[in-house]
Amino acid sequence: xxxxxxxxxxxxxxxxxxxxxxxxxxxxxxxxxxxxxxxxxxxxxxxxxxxxxxxxxxxxxxxxxxxxxxxxxxxxxxxxxxxxxxxxxxxxxxxxxxxxxxxxxxxxxxxxxxxxxxxxxxxxxxxxxxxxxxxxxxxxxxxxxxxxxxxxxxxxxxxxxxxxxxxxxxxxxxxxxxxxxxxxxxxxxxxxxxxxxxxxxxxxxxxxxxxxxxxxxxxxxxxxxxxxxxxxxxxxxxxxxxxxxxxxxxxxxxxxxxxxxxxxxxxxxxxxxxxxxxxxxxxxxxxxxxxxxxxxxxxxx
Length: 301
Known about the structure:
The chain contains 13 helices and nine strands. By secondary structure, the chain is of the alpha/beta class.
């Protein structure tokens, strides 16, 4: 898997291993039992991406392999990793393959590998889970743990909707993280957007919501924020951008709301137009995932 995506994804999993088990659809009764363990298989000159141990009454291991480029022998490599981990740790091993972009996909990646003798008889079967990031609904990713959020802009979302997704991420980071976490997760988001977009496109998208970044504690230290400053976005103009940030949030709220609830009536439009509090608008954007109508959404105020 090519860098910098490799290092970024490994760091995210290390920050929140239980988040990633949930993203992969693997239930864990007690997140406190989940730990990242050594993935080095140096005895066999092999090194898996991330290995998570779950100390349930019967312990087990989750191997997460992250792939951004094509490897025609990937399924066989996963089989080898799984076998070696089970041999080393003496516990059952589940395997999840996370394909980060379509260029990494192939017809052989079905979730099932059958090894056959020349006669055609199957002598070994290996099952694994395949997650194609670009096929995952963005709403589901936005509802995941914090360390999964950087995948949202490269999940199943139209390019036109990415700014709204970034606003939703910024809202969660502002409420749920420390300044250090916010800066790290925004940096990871910026890097992983490179899975789908050219660097110039990423810059343009992020600059389009740059006013929102000023509401995130600690963002001043992140590479995203610093990049904006280098392109002439001075802190002294932050107050002047506040009004623009409110308008961006309103536009994002209307866009996402229309997709889920349909066009708002005149009363709803009037209530939205009257909103001038950025924090409230961000809360409404987050609430869209949890309600079923415009009335339910505005009632949450």
